[in-house]
Design brief:
single chain; alpha/beta; 12 helices; 8 strands; globular; binds phosphoenolpyruvate
Length: about 260
């Protein structure tokens, strides 16, 4: 049986946009992607804008995600935000293990795994990020790094949970640098991730899980990446901050 996966284009706004800027953006975005039906669109604003952005997008089909989470529901964890809080703020997705969190905030594979389990327990969908650094690619250990990160992130998940995940392959050297992986290189690693999922959970789960590419995606390079058989969308940083470029990527994924 052939399973058709719906592409998902998610915008990671990082630490950009105040509440008023976020609202102006999504009100324009609604109009720009109104006609697109076959692509799932998600925006991931900073925590401060989540609630109001969710309210502004209610009923539009555009989803809302957070950029991070802590793994317990409540407690004395100053500065942290729980899955429960994200859910009530209107989120359905959470980016977990982004390379900037790994690089600047000490996020390790074990935290990624705890966070994934915590958000799944609340019915939220994790967007689990994996990716190699430039020196790892140059030493020929890309697949080893991806295997370690993927298996550690998925540890202890059952097949149904794994099937519902979104995985984002984001080579660290391509994030915010303007250097995109070639279509073939992105397909090769994403095909490898799908094979890992198949080895862990079987072919049916691997056929369902959505795997995005992320790293300097723009309207100009999106169509080639999205045409690859295993690439199911994009996690977009810089180009997600502008309505024209973000909606251009969504349109490229929709083939219009
Ligand atoms: C990201 O932050 O996830 C990302 C892919 O950034 P950019 O698109 O700017 O490379």
């Amino acid at each position: 049986m052939i399973i058709k996966r719906k592409p998902i284009i998610a915008g990671n706004w990082k630490m950009y946009k105040t509440v008023s800027q976020a609202l102006a953006f999504v009100n324009e975005l609604k109009r720009a992607v109104d006609e697109i039906k076959d692509v799932e669109v998600v925006v991931c604003p900073p925590f401060t804008a989540l609630f109001q952005v969710s309210e502004a997008l209610r009923g539009t089909g555009i989803g809302v995600g957070a950029q991070n989470v802590y793994w317990v529901d409540e407690g004395a964890f100053t500065g942290e935000i729980s899955p429960l809080m994200l859910k009530e703020a209107g989120c359905s997705y959470v980016i977990i293990g982004h390379s900037e969190r790994r690089q600047y905030f000490g996020e390790v594979d074990d935290y990624v795994n705890r966070k994934i389990k915590a958000v799944l327990a609340h019915g939220l969908t994790p967007i689990m990020c994996v990716g190699e650094r430039i020196e790892e690619r140059e030493s020929g250990i890309t697949e080893k790094i991806i295997k370690t990160q993927t298996e550690a992130g998925l540890a202890g998940l059952v097949a149904d949970q794994a099937a519902g995940l979104v995985i984002a392959y984001e080579p660290v050297w391509a994030i915010g640098t303007g250097k995109t992986a070639s279509d073939a290189d992105a397909q090769q690693v994403i095909g490898f991730i799908r094979k890992l999922v198949s080895d862990l959970y079987g072919a049916d789960v691997a056929a369902k899980v959505r795997i995005q590419y992320g790293g300097s995606v723009k309207p100009q390079n999106a169509a080639g990446l999205m045409a690859q058989p295993d690439i199911d969308g994009a996690l977009v940083g810089g180009a997600s901050l502008d309505v024209d470029s973000f909606s251009g990527i969504v349109k490229a994924a929709a083939g219009v």
